[in-house]
Batch of 2 targets.
Target 1
Amino acid sequence: MLPVNRGRAPHRAGMDFTDAKRKPSVLSKVVLALVLTVFCVYILKQSPGIAGTNMFSVHEPGVTHVLVTGGAGFIGSHAALRLLKDNYRVTIVDNLSRGNMAAVKILQGLFPEPGRLQFIYGDLGDTKVVNKIFSENAFDAVMHFAAVAYVGESTLEPLRYYHNITANTLTIMEAMAAHRVKTLIYSSTCATYGEPEKMPITEVTPQVPINPYGKAKKMAEDIILDFSKNSDMAVMVLRYFNVIGSDPEGRLGEAPRPELREHGRISGACFDAARGIIPGLKVRGTDYPTQDGTCIRDYIDVTDLVDAHVKALGKAEPGKVGIYNVGTGRGRSVKEFVEACKKATGVEIKVEYLTRRPGDYAEVYSDPSKINRELNWTAKYTDLQESLSIAWRWQKSHRNGYGTS
Ligand SMILES: NC(=O)c1ccc[n+]([C@@H]2O[C@H](COP(=O)([O-])OP(=O)(O)OC[C@H]3O[C@@H](n4cnc5c(N)ncnc54)[C@H](O)[C@@H]3O)[C@@H](O)[C@H]2O)c1
């Protein structure tokens, strides 16, 4: 008995000893594995680079992934906001040459969930970069906003304009074709029409652009239209008139680089004058053949404009091309604009009248009946004074653009 007991005792003791040591070891391994798994999942969730790549690189049923080029810029950021609100998945590509990272950060703050929005810093003039972006992401559609976009600047730096607008659009088209991206919504402009003899401008008004900006956009349109003759890509070309306004909820605004002021758009100049950043407003050209001698333009609110994009995206059909003017159909003179700006800002802006600006044209306003009819779109939010008031609210609280509040 004794030997048996003696024999068993150490054995049991040994077994007990071994069990006691093994149990915590297995347990601790399980716990460690669990902790590591939780940690990895946490890191993946925290890192948009890793989690984002996975979600953005696959087509997901029921989710439309839109590449918004130039999404850090004025119109692109407003379009991205609208797309995100409408539950699209958005990738913004921008080289920040003119856009604002702060606008992208605001969008990221509003839509922080994984798989909603990613930002890629990239220059669309670099074919390798563009191909990498297209091979690493699964886009369903492209809204191509990115461009240099100042008429006056284009007369001084034409090559830059042809490169940035025409050549970069060709690069985008090649990448879309190679990666079988199905839909393109292209940002074109009324500047492609030049100075037509007959107003209003319809989509069949001959396109005879008179400055490098308009010519570069017309060439880009030609590339797109020629390609689409033999392709099943769904294409919508939107020719915008003059864009004003900003997000009515005050999250985004128009904040061009200060050095672009001299080429800038009239709304920016009005606000700068109202804030005292510039001494007054310079109206270039008072001898145009118009009612009050100043140029006539068709101003469209950015909220209406991005709505046209979403409608165009919804109605885009494979193998078909839709070309639409996006304007109100009503021309307003620069003098009228200045009066509306004075009322919107409450500031008696000084106005200096100068000679014409090279490359400008007298009168431009749209006939929007095609887009009204086919895309069921009308300019609902555009009201010159109200649009300027909304934009002014943002400008007043963002004296240095997105830099300060
Ligand atoms: N604002 C208007 O009144 C108006 C009128 C007609 C057409 N458009 C067109 O709308 C589009 C957007 O204009 P916007 O007023 O928002 O201009 P914007 O300058 O505010 O935005 C353009 C964006 O494109 C980016 N970009 C430029 N070149 C790039 C490149 N090579 N690679 C990557 N990103 C690049 C800029 O950094 C900027 O963020 C343009 O195509 C413009 O021609 C504008």
Target 2
Amino acid sequence: MKKLVVALSMVAFAAIAFANGPETIDLSKAFNVKSPTKKAVMFPHALHQKNNQCTDCHMDAKGGKDLKGADGKKFVAGEVKGTANALHKNFCWPCHEKKQVKAGKSCTTCHK
Ligand code: HEC
Ligand code: HEC
Ligand code: HEC
């Protein structure tokens, strides 16, 4: 019985870990950055799940590829190039501003 409970809880844990997606995501790969001038952003996904709602960033509470822009619409990255790119302006930066994240717009907070 004890073994069964342990086995079942391990299955449940694995399911949760999987449903939450990767712990860290290389966003230069996810957004297919073609000629990077900055270091690739290794996005701390698990950390962001602690103090934000899934639906702050995803169109759906299950997560997945459909992200929600800061404008509340389905996020479209387009070609990620230069400092005026959509990830800065319509995804990462507005929330860091709103939540007053320390050094939230410093280049080296994300590109390191
Ligand atoms: C601060 C923003 C943010 C929050 C909060 C967040 N995510 Fe994500 N999540 C992302 C980004 C960015 C990606 C990468 C999307 C991509 O690869 O196109 C991602 C990817 C994922 C993926 C993998 C999608 C795939 O098919 O590769 C899953 C699953 C996921 N998130 C689930 C969740 C769940 C569940 C929550 C809440 C517990 C959550 N996320 C909270 C930003 C966030
Ligand atoms: C919905 C709000 C929200 C969005 C969108 C968001 N962040 Fe954050 N981010 C936070 C908060 C809040 C913190 C402060 C850390 C904490 O306490 O959770 C943070 C902290 C960070 C940190 C510092 C982590 C540390 O170790 O101190 C990095 C790096 C970061 N974010 C990267 C990103 C990147 C890259 C994006 C866009 C792909 C992004 N964030 C989008 C809310 C957000
Ligand atoms: C909150 C996180 C965050 C901060 C702060 C940030 N960036 Fe980015 N930046 C990103 C993400 C995410 C991408 C797209 C993924 C990638 O390039 O790895 C990106 C892409 C870029 C790109 C296009 C790709 C490339 O490598 O040429 C440039 C240029 C850029 N950032 C410059 C800057 C500069 C300059 C600063 C400081 C003023 C800065 N970024 C601060 C998250 C951030």
